[in-house]
Design brief:
Helix content: 40-55%
Mean pLDDT: 86
Low-confidence stretches: 332-342
Largest sheet: 7 strands, mixed
Strand content: 5-15%
Structural class: alpha/beta
Distance between the termini: 66 Å
Order of helices and strands: HHHHHHHHHEEHEHEHEHEHEHHH
Shape: globular
Strand order of the largest sheet: 2-1-4-5-6-3-7
Number of helices: 17
Length: 420
């Protein structure tokens, strides 16, 4: 709407009051502030000023004072409603539902692109005189959804977007922590596969299995085991970052939550996205019987694991149940059966990938790759010698030790200091 066009504020109020499919959008901070402003009684000058300032405050809180429309569009795309769920599942919504959704969309788009001065004048010509004393946000440029001019284009965009990105919180976040429910991780590890050096063969197994999973081919639960600091967890994190745009999401599950795996499977099984349930540093004590819950989900449970869920676990132990010599000398009549049950847990992962500490040559290759990425001006011989001394003081070579040394070395070189 150009500034010269008169604004039909009553029509906008009616359409916003009648939001149906996307009604949840106006429960989010910025849309809620916009709605309060539009619905504020016109004669109340002070209430109008407060509501106007409330929109600016919501924009400031979201970091969008120069582009309020972008934040409004995010709110629309993140909404979880019957229409977006059908689109995410690749289904065709009923015509009546789609018509209502697109009507809501048109009203929210108009709200997002409102010029604040024009809006203030439409709400109350008398209040327009207060404009110099009120903070002004900028609508900014419309995003890929709000820039579309017709319903057919919006329909096609939303169908493709939700099929790839899901709906609700799954459009905004890729990583979650299970705390009795799905808790989004706002700042997930940004590590990329390209940042990880060495271990190409074991890492390729993880990549291939994940790609099979995403393409709907048979895929297996995976156990990544080996020495500390060899990049097992980083590999899993980097897998998420590479395949997030293809519909992959990850749920980190503490070992204490293993008994809730059936509940998690039920909660995620009906969603259109693919989920990796990630269990880091997995091992059990003899007295810990929670491994039974994991074993049942891996294989043998009456309730099958849903097709859109895999388990990836890391461990420093090939046999996940810790065993002491005294455990073999107990008074259990069928001790061998118990031992076999404990050892069988790791075998229930379809694929086991091993990450062992690198030898000298591989350690140097990892260092050289990191130095090249960081564009460090240092000879390989000097780098290797200093890194060997660093590793010796920290218990041996590993990719983690290499990264820690490179952080140290880069800081020293940037400051013009020697490595030793």
């Amino acid at each position: 709407m150009s500034p010269a066009e008169p604004m039909n504020i009553d029509s906008l109020r009616l359409r916003l009051s009648g939001l149906s499919v996307y009604r949840g959008v106006v429960e989010q901070p910025l849309p809620a502030a916009f709605l309060r402003l539009v619905l504020t009684p016109c004669p109340d000058r002070y209430a109008l000023a407060a509501a106007f300032a409330g929109v600016f405050a919501a924009c400031a809180g979201a970091g969008c004072t120069e582009n309020a429309a972008a934040e409004m569009e995010k709110a629309v795309l993140r909404d979880d409603n019957p229409y977006t769920r059908l689109l995410a599942a690749g289904k065709t919504p009923p015509e009546s539902l789609e018509r209502a959704a697109l009507m809501d969309m048109a009203a929210l788009k108009e709200l997002a692109l409102l010029d604040p001065l024009q809006l203030l004048a439409a709400l109350s010509p008398e209040a327009a005189a207060d404009a110099p004393s009120l903070p002004l946000w900028q609508p900014g440029e419309p995003g890929p959804l709000f820039s579309l001019a017709d319903d057919e284009s919006r329909r096609a965009f939303l169908s493709d977007y939700h099929r790839r990105q899901g709906c609700g919180i799954y459009t905004a976040y890729a990583a979650f922590l299970w705390e009795g429910g799905m808790t989004p991780i706002a700042h997930a590890d940004p590590i990329r596969l390209e940042d990880l050096k060495g271990y190409e063969l074991p890492r390729q197994k993880v990549i291939e299995n994940t790609e099979n999973f995403l393409k709907g081919y048979p895929a297996s639960n995976m156990l990544l085991y080996g020495d500390r600091g060899t990049g097992k967890s980083s590999t899993v994190h980097a897998i998420l970052n590479r395949y997030r745009s293809e519909g992959l999401r990850m749920l980190e599950l503490p070992k204490e939550g293993l008994r809730e795996l059936p509940r998690i499977s039920e909660a995620l099984g009906n969603l259109p996205l693919k989920f990796i349930v990630f269990i880091d540093d997995l091992s059990f004590d003899q007295a810990d019987d929670s491994f039974g819950a994991l074993k049942a989900v891996l294989e043998g449970s009456l309730s099958a694991r849903p097709d859109n869920l895999l388990l990836y676990a890391t461990s420093n132990r090939r046999h996940l149940v810790r065993e002491n010599h005294s455990d073999r000398q107990g008074d259990e009549v069928h001790a061998a059966d118990t031992m076999q049950e404990q050892l069988s847990l790791s075998d229930r992962f379809g694929i086991t990938v091993t990450f062992l500490n690198p030898g000298r040559a591989q350690f140097y290759e990892i260092l050289d790759g990191m130095a090249a990425d960081r564009k460090l001006d240092i000879s390989p011989d000097a780098l290797h010698a200093a890194a060997e001394r660093w590793a010796l003081s920290r218990g041996g070579r590993s990719p983690r030790v290499a990264r820690q040394f490179m952080d140290f070395a880069q800081s020293r070189l940037l400051r013009g200091l020697p490595l030793d």
